[in-house]
């Protein structure tokens, strides 16, 4: 039996524009990847929307459609790309500079990539200290800059004949900051824009501009952006989805896979030491201690929420968790994450696990950008306004309602995501109750 009251979802007709504040390694890898998939040059590995399946009903029924066949999503041929960046290179030149994808592949889609050129960015050196670029807007106030972004959004939609837009932040990590009075209400925030408040970061201006235009916004960095009361209020006012923050890619992805297994088997953990080396623009930005603190807060919270040391004090109360990121230019986008995990088994006997993850940061992030864009557009068409907690699967620091702790267990997150799709389609949720019927 299906659920009563299937949610009405507007059809995914026409063209969907995907805007990325930041057109560096992640954004170019995402866009070039979609273009390559459209031409049959590669497979969209890592994307739930393109390769994932969803089980319906009892296991004996063997109903397992692809997610793409189950819900109405835009075809990849109907995606249009744009964005902003502090550097002037078109997306082909930016992709060559990023050094993630092979030049032979990029040359197959060169003409398309060259057509994607960055709009002038909103940028403030105070928030990203270690890089600078010439392609930057100027204005009388931060409200003026936000209104320029709004005009960019309007013009992009018109010039590219888009029916709908979504935005996914693919820019740099900003310095660590905490909410202040200017973030407390939408009225305070808009007055702060007019007054050019120093507490309003560029990423917050992008979110404001997008949400003012009803464009769903995904925060791919650990920045304080869509998780402030003012922006949440605006999202509700314009009935627009928001979600974030910080793409769950390399080392943290491994933690959300491994830690639930340790907890399920009630293995103790005495220490978890994590260090990374990477040499891309992200590494350069994170070489600034203030920017690293933003990332550190995002990465450190994962284990506490998964392991629940207050409920399992004998196993996790004394866990020592350390995270380090080291900028190492020769490595480029090919990040290496080392983890040393000191675990305890029966009678407290010590054991060790060591993980050496030689990952490609942007390769792991690109399919997340695609899924988040398509799922956020789906949420908008389904009338799902405000924070989309069901998309926690994609985030290091999932955004939650006030008073609710975030769920970091990747397997629970995936179940929540698929159950949300089942609910919207009016199908029975998978609860895993009853061995004869469920997994």
SSE order, one letter for each helix or strand: EHHHEHHHEHEHHEHEHEHHHEEEHEH
SS field, number of helical segments = 16
- As for the CATH topology of the largest domain, it is Rossmann fold
Rough outline: globular
Average of pLDDT: 93
Distance between the termini: 18 Å
CATH C-level of the largest domain: Alpha Beta
Low confidence ranges:
435-439
Annotation, overall tally of beta strands: 11
Task: Specify the CATH homologous superfamily of the largest domain.
Answer: NAD(P)-binding Rossmann-like Domain
Share of helix among residues?
25-40%
User: If classified by CATH, what would the architecture of the largest domain be?
Assistant: 3-Layer(aba) Sandwich
Radius of gyration: 22 Å
Strand order of the largest sheet: 3-2-1-4-5-6-11
Percentage beta strand: 15-25%
Number of individual domains: 2
Strand-pairing-aware structural class = alpha/beta
* Largest sheet entry: 7 strands, parallel
